[in-house]
Each structure stands twice: as structure tokens, then as C-alpha cells.
Write a structure and sequence with these properties.
By secondary structure, the chain is mostly helical. The protein has helices at 7-10, 14-24, 29-36, 40-49, 51-88, 92-101, 122-153. It is elongated.
């Protein structure tokens, strides 16, 4: 766990922390479950129902995305320097290919940032989980009612 852990991270079990580390490292759900010593279904349940798990996983993914964006920005600066050198030395075809690939020739801003920000607030995630659970229960009840109606129309005793 990080030195400046948030309250929701403190609530995580060692198994949950290991699963999160694996998921953020790009491992499959099965590998994350194995790392945490639990089943794949358990990790899926944590992702659906445990706000602290969701918030910590989202925070870790957001931090990873921010780090990747910073690295890409540094690389793009070096790449532009290389393009400048290529242009200065007369290699215009390489320079144009790079500029085109970056989307700089069509007047649009290059897509060097990750615009998806995942929710990190465990309270908000808990509210979303409760709302989702209510929606699932309502759908289940509607399906049961429809089945009862169909059975009564077909003359099947209810």
C-alpha cells in the first residue's frame, strides 16, 4: 500500500490490494484473482459491489494514465526535435509522415492526453452501486410479473 494511503485503501484486504496491483499492471482478471488468492468471480464481485475496491482501482488507473500522458508528452517533444532535424537536413518525407501521423497537418490538436477520468470517491461509487442494485431488482421484479401474466394467460396455475 502507498505511504499516503487514502481511507478507502486502508479498508482493503491484502488479497484486494494484490488483485488491484495485477489489474493495473495489465494482467487478466484470472491472473489478478490468482495473485490475490481468490476466484475470478470474487474479483468481479469486488468490482461490482465494493466501493473501496473500485475507488482504489480507479485511482491507480488514473495515476497510471497520468504517468503515461507525461511520458508521451516528453517523447513527443523529443520526436518533434527529431522531425526538426529531419527537416533541417532535407528529409521532408519523414517529417511530413510524422506530422501527418500526429494529426498536425489537419489543424487539429494532437490526441496526446487521456480524457477518461474514473471515479475515485468511494461514497459516490457506493451510491452508484446501490442505484444499480435497485435497477437490477426492479428489472427482476418486472420479469417475474411478466412471467406470471404469461402463465395466467396460458392457463397455468400461479
Amino acid at each position: 500500500m502507498r505511504q499516503n494511503a487514502t481511507p478507502d485503501e486502508v479498508d482493503l484486504s491484502p488479497q484486494q490490494r494484490l488483485a488491484i496491483e495485477s489489474l493495473v499492471a495489465g494482467e487478466t482478471m484470472t491472473a489478478a484473482a490468482k495473485a490475490g488468492g481468490v476466484t475470478r468471480q470474487t474479483v468481479h464481485r469486488w468490482q461490482r459491489e465494493k466501493a473501496a475496491f473500485q475507488a482504489t482501482l480507479n485511482r491507480a488507473r488514473n495515476e497510471l494514465a497520468a504517468a503515461m500522458e507525461t511520458r508521451l508528452q516528453k517523447l513527443s517533444d523529443r520526436a518533434l526535435g527529431t522531425v526538426e532535424d529531419a527537416v533541417e537536413h532535407g528529409n521532408a518525407s519523414v517529417a511530413l509522415a510524422v506530422l501527418k501521423g500526429l494529426g498536425l497537418l489537419d489543424g487539429k490538436r494532437p490526441a496526446l492526453h487521456f480524457s477518461v477520468q474514473l471515479e475515485e470517491d468511494p461514497n459516490e461509487l457506493a451510491r452508484r452501486n446501490e442505484r444499480h442494485e435497485r435497477e437490477r431488482e426492479l428489472t427482476r421484479q418486472q420479469m417475474e410479473n411478466e412471467l406470471c401474466q404469461r402463465e395466467s394467460w396460458a392457463g397455468v396455475p400461479v
